[in-house]
Amino acid sequence: MLPDGFSDLVGIIVQNWDWDVLPKKDTDVWDALLYTVFLGATVRSAQANYAKEVFGTFLDYDKAKAVLTDANWRKKALKIVDTELRSIHDTPGEGFKRAILQIAIHEIDTFDLSRTIGDSLKFFSNYKICANKIKSLENDRRGSLDLIASAAHEIHNVRYIKGVLWLYNCGIAKEIVPPNAHVTRFLNECGYPGFGWSRDIPEDWQIFTIACNKMSDVAKQVAIELNREISPKQAQAAVWYLQTCRGLLDRNTKKKLTPNLLLAFLKNQKWSINQLNGKLGDVEELEDVTKKLKDFLG
Question: Do residues 169 and 35 lie in contact, with contact meaning Cβ atoms separated by under 8 Å?
């Protein structure tokens, strides 16, 4: 059973759908992966965007190769973060910024970040990853699944969730969904059996296929209600908006936010879905969105 208003939420999302833009340059494919590197269980999309911006050209494809040869790479990475930490006092979104920067420091100190970057460089080289290769997979579900599985096994800290999100950022993988908390919580809310864990949450590879299948069912239900073709990726986008907004709220308040109320909130604020997308992707806008949501929900 889909939550009331969910299909309508999907409907406004697909009106101006722009999540399937293919990469124009080889570096676009690398940049698409970098964003996912900073994502985590407690890291919002806006924070991942911010972390990527903080490192700037330091992690560009050609410059990132220094991680394989430069003994001072860790020291240089920490200096970038330290400089940013000293510059963000009293800036919008300071709390969100400090949280992700502290995570970045930990991942640099434990060599997690350098290992992920190094593995990614080797992966791109070994699999000859480029814009044309990605474009060749646009309508190739099997090929996309194989590439995700390879990335999940060969790149440290990527796994299936980030592998899917990487290809999402490349404009493909329309029939696939990431088995992340957003999706699994939504499927549990819809009453699909096997998604209501209170403990011992399965690894993402264990639920990848079933999550894809169930979100395909969701997309088919939405397609019937809207009388138009809907991809699992588009249905997942609506889940992302709903769960991301809920994630800004405290436990009691987030329970109030339904798809219908999210649509009413957008109307109340006179925001388009694209404007909401921009705000949810900007770390300096999150506190304002949170306050407005709390005020709206009472």
Answer: yes
E strands in 44-146: none
Query: What distance in Å separates the CA atoms of residue 5 and residue 16, rounded to the nearest whole number?
Result: 18
In a domain, 86, yes or no: yes
Q: For the residues of 166-233, what is the DSSP string, one character each?
A: HHHHTT--TT----SHHHHHHHHHTT-TT---SSSPPPHHHHHHHHHHHHHHHHHHHHHHHTS---HH
Counting Cα atoms < 13 Å in the Cβ hemisphere of 281 gives: 11
Same structural domain for residues 93 and 157? Answer: yes
Does residue 263 contact residue 241 with C-beta atoms inside 8 Å?
no
Q: What is the pLDDT of residues 99-139, one digit of tens each?
A: 999 999 999 999 999 999 999 999 999 999 999 999 999 99
Based on the structure, what is the number of domains in the chain?
2
At 155-208, the pLDDT tens digits run 999 999 999 999 999 999 999 999 999 999 999 999 988 888 767 788 999 999
Judge whether 71 and 65 are in contact, CB under 8 Å.
no
Q: Would you say 154 and 141 are in contact if contact means Cβ atoms under 8 Å apart?
A: no
C-alpha 200 chain-centroid distance: 23
Whether the model pTM is above 0.90: yes
Which pLDDT does position 103 carry in this prediction?
A: 96
CB atoms within 10 A of CB 43: 17
Chosen domain end from 127, 151, 169: 169
